[in-house]
């Protein structure tokens, strides 16, 4: 690590520079994130406005609210669960970026993690936050490029890709990515990985796959955090003589 | 879909809306890049490593982006290219969005893709699809700062513990995702994909420690392809 990063690293650094940097970073992140997310929330209604203004089509408020109700019933829990669960990993800027661009589990989280691995930063330092944000930004640019290609050239592309490969992407790319990211972090925290799997798999299988996904995420994330805390404290107290407190 | 629905689904104003939405996403990314570079200047973090980070993010996103593009092609046949492009550029993954399209159709009492699926049904589907995004957007806007203070409080200023905490959160989140794909009723392809993906990733990361020209940023895409290939072979 460079001298500069050693001076500045550690979110809990007592020095004014650490806290001042954090304050500036959070303020900048919010100044960018809040307007762009709010603008998007408004823009979300644009397709509907277009269809209404151009074709006069609107299903009526009864149907609209019925559809909304179904969406809320099925996905409402995730509106709360996902931000809370992903926040510790994404941080403030990362969250604003990821919850705007989407594809969090299959792209933002993995790419942020890979970027930090490639550059080789200590987790949860200002350097790591910078690298994470840049990694996410890189993933957004690539993603937008491919989406644009698919949108503009889509049907033409479809002819050249065999149906089996398309189906393969649809069904197996996600699970493969989840396994890959899990593997990456299992390398670093093998015991935690084992516990995390134990919690999630036993909940899912034990309930015969009937349990609500949101419940599994909450239990798995917070359960693993709790176990992580226990193991961390135990490890710290057994190294009490040589522990260096930030 | 009836011809006028297809026409509406591919109208120029909808394309315009999609382009506008994509621009907002890219603009935000650009602003955050600028913030990061300014931050790097402040703490003396080398510019070269910033580029390395961006490149790593961009390259490692190729594999997952192919997957999203493939899903997008499928969704385009349901609601048309511009609406799909609009939707998949922002929060709300394809399965969630497609479910919302279905709910919109259900609320109008029709089936997606049937001749009765008229312009009003398309409007309802778009409404359901897009209103679902607003949930995440508003929650993050309202709670992000609070979550940040919560994270600070829980970490108690101990950055090593914070690293473990985010590692634990990551493992927990992905363990949950893994468990979702283990259902034997869906076949074992998902399970195989996950195992092979995980093992490949570990192997590739360890390999790139020794073989320096094999950058770690390719590991994710390769592991994804290997997982997919294995799943498709069973």
What's the rounded overall pLDDT mean of chain B?
89
- Beta-strand content bin of chain A: under 5%
Pairing-aware structural class of the strands and helices of chain B? mainly alpha
Give the amount of beta strand of chain B, in percent. under 5%
Q: So what's the oligomer here?
A: heterodimer
User: In terms of per-residue confidence, which ranges of chain A show pLDDT below 50 for 5 or more consecutive residues?
Assistant: 1-16
Counting H and I runs of at least 4 residues, what is the number of helices of chain B?
10
Element-level helix/strand string of chain A: HHHHHHHHH
- Largest β sheet strand count, sense and barrel closure of chain A: none
- Please trace the helix and strand order of chain B, writing H or E for each element: HHHHHHHHHH
- Major pleated sheet of chain B: none
Mean pLDDT of chain A: 86
Number of strands of chain A: 0
Number of DSSP strand runs of chain B = 0
User: N-to-C terminal Cα separation of chain B, in Å?
Assistant: 36 Å
Overall radius of gyration of chain A: 22 Å
Low-confidence stretches of chain B: none
Biggest interface goes to: A-B, 173 and 165 residues
